């Protein structure tokens, strides 16, 4: 700390020699002048002294008949005049500090963490709608209001926290991991039914809400009601007093057969590259683009564009892009699939189809797919035994009122 | 009292208070004048870290401290 104070006020390193240097040191201390780092090198004493005190040395030096010479200068008073002569450096320093100060007034980065259900794109477009974007003034940001708006807009967000970390707006959110229960009571009051989407056999059934109309092992046709959304309320005498409309909730697995069919023509067109290619570099800034104008003498060609956007921060993009375009000449050539190639391509198609089913949660019990030549091409066709929740909600078909049902029951 | 106060830390540092002035200073010997006596510090590479009217700090390789009566 004292070293910084000394450097701020400035100090010099002096060399003292002559008749009575010890007396010189004593007189300095008597006059309250601080000396430090006193060393003796042969007949010469070197020591450090504050810049202000240095001007008081003249009388002491004369009295003690010593010579005092400055050997080195330290501190701000010696540094500043040298700096003042370097005008470009000073201007740069001033501009840098000004840029730093001004840019600290804005938000330059927005970071969102903890979002799984709400995607980044959705969240950033919401922020954009709320007027929150990179480059906005920090003073215009109302974090409390933003937190409220996030909770209001996204029902799955249970907790949110926003804070400014320098020029970065950090938004942390927590989402509800539990599934949101469906509304049991139908809004219109008519109720809904759960119906089969295809013909099949029920292999598994768990009903949480509604009246089951089928059981495990039942064969159902497309459109059959599996769970009815009208719960009968019985009177004390065992008769139905009324029906309460609900939205049925059940896990029902249907086993049914599905078909797969794919066709592959025997021939196909493939690009055969000649090896001739041309590469151009370009710069894209805003709406303007700079690239060399060159004539393309290729008959058929495609192009590969590689562009790299310039980013200042993770989410702060400068509207500038640099990249290159490579034009590659090719010739269209006709090829015919060999047996193994056709099989490979069709097997790939089958596997893709099965993967798609698997992603949808469809269980594949068995598959019987054959590949054969047909109509100047190749076909893959077969049957699949599948298990899936092939049910859907439809509006209740009963033309009901509680009274009608009651009457029917009484009959 | 005006008695000299010497504080030694090992043989490398010495703080001295209540002295009158320096009588002799070389890299091997520093002789100080106190009110009633003189103090001589002997050693090698002796240097004065700071020197004021109140106190001073000597550092180096101190080998002996002697009081010399006038």
Termini distance of chain A? 103 Å
* Estimated radius of gyration of chain B: 11 Å
Structural class of chain A: alpha+beta
Whole-number mean pLDDT of chain B: 91
Percentage of residues in strands of chain A: over 45%
Task: Kindly report the CATH topology of chain B.
Answer: Immunoglobulin-like
The total strand number of chain B stands at 6
Shape of chain A: elongated
Summarize the structure in short:
The complex is a heterodimer of chains A (411) and B (70). With 411 residues, chain A is an alpha+beta fold.
Can you put this structure into words, describing what you see?
The complex is a heterodimer of chains A (411) and B (70). Chain A is α+β, with helices and mostly antiparallel strands and 411 residues long. Chain A has 4 domains: 2-80, ACT domain (Alpha-Beta Plaits, 2-Layer Sandwich), CATH 3.30.70; 109-175, Ubiquitin-like (UB roll); 185-266 and 337-411, no CATH class; 277-332, no CATH class. Chain A is built from 10 helices and 22 strands. In chain A, the strands form 6 sheets. Chain A has a 5-stranded antiparallel sheet with strand order 11-9-15-21-20. In chain A, helix 2 runs antiparallel to helix 4. The longest helix of chain A is centred in the C-terminal third of the chain and has 21 residues, at 339-359. Chain A is elongated and about 125 Å long. The N and C termini of chain A lie far apart (103 Å). Mean pLDDT of chain A is 85; it is low at 400-411. Chain B is mainly β and 70 residues long. Chain B has a single domain (5-69), classed as Sandwich (Immunoglobulin-like), CATH 2.60.40.2000. Chain B contains no helices and 6 strands. Chain B has a 6-stranded antiparallel sheet with strand order 1-2-6-5-4-3, with no helix packed on it. In chain B, strand 4 and strand 5 form a beta hairpin. The two termini of chain B are 18 Å apart. The mean pLDDT of chain B is 91. Classes of the chains: A alpha+beta (411), B mainly beta (70). Chain A binds chain B through residues 21-23, 25-26, 28-30, 32, 34-40, 45, 47, and chain B through 20-27, 47-53. Strand 2 of chain A pairs antiparallel with strand 5 of chain B, so a sheet runs across the interface.
């Amino acid at each position: 700390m004292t070293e910084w104070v000394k450097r701020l006020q400035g100090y010099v390193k002096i060399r003292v020699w002559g008749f009575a240097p010890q007396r010189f040191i004593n007189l300095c201390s008597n006059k309250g002048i601080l000396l430090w780092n006193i060393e003796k090198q042969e007949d010469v004493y070197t020591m450090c002294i504050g810049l202000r005190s240095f001007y008081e040395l003249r009388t002491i030096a004369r009295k003690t008949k010593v010579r005092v010479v400055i050997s080195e200068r330290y501190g701000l008073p010696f540094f500043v005049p040298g700096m003042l002569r370097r005008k470009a450096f000073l201007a740069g320093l001033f501009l840098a500090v000004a840029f730093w100060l001004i840019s600290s007034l804005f938000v330059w980065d927005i970071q969102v963490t903890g979002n799984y259900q709400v995607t980044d794109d959705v969240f950033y477009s919401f922020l954009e709608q709320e007027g929150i974007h990179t480059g906005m003034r920090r003073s215009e940001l109302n974090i409390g209001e933003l937190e409220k708006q996030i909770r209001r807009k996204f029902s799955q967000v249970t907790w949110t926290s926003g804070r400014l970390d320098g020029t970065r707006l950090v938004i942390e959110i927590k989402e509800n991991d539990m599934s949101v229960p469906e509304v049991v009571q139908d809004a219109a009051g008519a109720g809904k039914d759960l119906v089969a989407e295809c013909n099949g056999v029920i292999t598994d059934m768990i009903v949480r809400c509604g009246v089951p109309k089928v059981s495990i092992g039942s064969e159902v046709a497309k459109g059959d009601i599996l769970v009815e959304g009208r719960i009968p309320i019985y009177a004390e005498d065992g008769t139905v007093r009324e029906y309460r409309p609900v939205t049925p909730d059940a896990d029902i697995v249907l086993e049914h057969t599905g078909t797969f069919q794919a066709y592959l023509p025997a021939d196909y067109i493939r690009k055969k590259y000649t090896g001739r290619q041309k590469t151009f570099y370009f710069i894209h800034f805003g709406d303007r683009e700079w690239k060399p104008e060159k004539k393309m003498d290729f008959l058929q060609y495609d192009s590969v564009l590689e562009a790299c956007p310039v980013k200042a921060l993770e989410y702060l993009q400068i509207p500038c892009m640099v990249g290159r375009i490579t034009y590659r000449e090719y010739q269209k050539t006709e090829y015919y699939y060999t047996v193994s190639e056709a099989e490979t391509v069709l097997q790939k198609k089958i596997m893709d189809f099965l993967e798609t089913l698997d992603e949808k949660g469809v269980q594949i019990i068995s598959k019987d797919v054959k590949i054969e030549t047909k109509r100047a091409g190749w076909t893959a066709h077969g049957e699949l035994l599948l298990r899936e929740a092939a049910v859907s909600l439809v509006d209740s078909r009963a033309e009901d009122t509680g009274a009608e049902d009651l009457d029917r029951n009484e009959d | 009292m005006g008695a000299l106060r010497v504080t030694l830390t090992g043989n490398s540092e010495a703080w001295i208070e209540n002295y009158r002035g320096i009588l002799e200073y070389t890299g091997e010997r520093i002789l100080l004048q106190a009110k009633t006596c003189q103090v001589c510090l002997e050693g090698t590479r002796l240097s004065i870290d700071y020197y004021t009217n109140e106190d001073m700090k000597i550092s180096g390789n101190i080998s002996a401290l002697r009081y010399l009566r006038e």
